[in-house]
Model the fold of this input.
Amino acid sequence: MRDLHILFAKLGAEVGSNPLKKHIKAPILTAQMTEEQKRLWHKIKNFEIDDIDASFTFSDRLARENDWSIEYALRTILEYKKFIFLIAVSDYPQTPSDQIDQVWHLHLLYTESYWIELCTNTIQKQIHHGPTKGSEERTLFKEQYVKTLDLYASIFNEKPPNDIWLDVDTRFSDIHFTRVNRKRNWIIPKPRFKN
Done:
């Protein structure tokens, strides 16, 4: 819950209020969750990804490195936690949205937080990130992504937010990213021509 305290402080809100109420809904537990899964989801949901003693937190870095608002970064962290839960309870591989993958990549850099605090202490399961081996796996990852979206809807009794979990075609076509130093380079979007 400290993640929310940090967010409220950054947004200048009182902890008793909820400036994100319209954006962050508490996931509905469904009849499809076993008691064990409900306990696991509670542990993952309450996992503290931000170090409240740090002047530059995980969520700050995530927002800065992706040019996201702090609100969007925190919403994406919540979706990342849901994704981790889906991996933990499913018996087949899950594929994240690109936004969730950015959270995951960054979390892997915080090795103690990821491997010890999350994997070992919170979920008691080692979750490895398996990068693509190339374009020959594109169909496989598309199929896994669709299954992930379906499992999400089944477990959380709602569709994933479409500004974080893009549709499958966009997810696998809008992926041409390059790290750019914006102090040394201008970024000018290409014009889009209609066919």
About this structure: The first helix runs from residue 2 to 11. Residues 152 and 160 are 7 Å apart (CA to CA).
